[in-house]
């Protein structure tokens, strides 16, 4: 997909998918296994999930390549990324498929090491025909710049960058999204914003402030609320689909135009989001 075409779509209202990981667990994926391998062993689960997201209104689905990189796996990753992209394409033939990369998960890698690892993965994602690249759940400005620079070195695809933030906009490994987002805009990102983090009800001021510090479309893909841990030690996300959808409408009014859900959201959450953000007349 051309970058201009993406920017046009993204400055209207562009609807992303919801969670992958928490839904795979709900479908039986044990904790501690490699999601990439589990998905390839249970392709019907991903087909069903992503098919449901498209029915719910998602225009973009994220290929389940999140941790299919040398930062997380010891084996060669090229073939794994290829197969996962092909699976998403099959699951959602009429949606845009984003090749998904994430944080390196540690603060001590050199910029060169990060650049090299991202380049290796993104080159395969782009080569396999992804429509765009998403760099998500990022924890620091440096690693995100490395991933964006790697993407720009190997392809001309649109690139979205989103950070995991606390409700004051701070990043996990230091710095704030308000410093990071303009730096990424200058480096050639096509949309910037937040994902994961907290619930949409806690992120309105972050989105509003972010809207003021960049010209680019702003992404909001939050969790279904802050998780509570149940007696089996599992994270439970408390927000109902309807509350999530209503709250996402507020983030849209605060300036986000690329909207989806992260941990704990389901196709029902995306359906509610779609209904609320596509509604012309709604009371604030
Ligand atoms: Zn998440």
Description:
This protein has 284 residues and is an alpha/beta fold. The chain has one domain (3-225, 233-278): Homocysteine-binding-like domain (TIM Barrel). Helices cover 44% and strands 15% of the residues. The chain has an eight-stranded parallel sheet with strand order 1-10-7-6-5-4-3-2. A two-stranded antiparallel ribbon has the order 8-9. Strand 2 (60-62), helix 5 and strand 3 form a beta-alpha-beta unit. The protein is globular and about 45 Å long. The protein starts with a helix and ends in a 6-residue tail after the last helix. The mean pLDDT is 96. The structure holds zinc ion (ZN). Zinc ion is lined by residues 196, 223, 262-263.
How are the elements arranged and paired?
Elements: H1 3-11, E1 14-15, H2 21-26, H3 35-41, H4 43-56, E2 60-62, H5 78-91, E3 96-102, H6 111-127, E4 132-138, H7 141-154, E5 159-163, H8 177-186, E6 191-196, H9 204-213, E7 218-222, E8 228-229, E9 235-236, H10 241-253, E10 256-259, H11 267-278
This protein binds zinc ion.
Residues 196, 223, 262-263 line the site of zinc ion (ZN).
Which descriptors apply to this entry?
single chain; 284 residues; alpha/beta; TIM Barrel; 8-stranded parallel sheet; two-stranded antiparallel sheet; 10 strands; globular; binds zinc ion
The outline comes out as globular
pLDDT average, as an integer? 96
Low-confidence stretches: none
User: Termini, distance in Å?
Assistant: 35 Å
CATH homologous superfamily grouping: Homocysteine-binding-like domain
The number of helices is 11
Global Rg = 17 Å
Biggest sheet character: 8 strands, parallel
Can you tell me the CATH architecture? Alpha-Beta Barrel
Name the CATH class: Alpha Beta
Strand order of the largest sheet: 1-10-7-6-5-4-3-2
* SSE pattern: HEHHHEHEHEHEHEHEEEHEH
User: Count of DSSP E strands?
Assistant: 10
Given the helix and strand composition, which structural class is it? alpha/beta
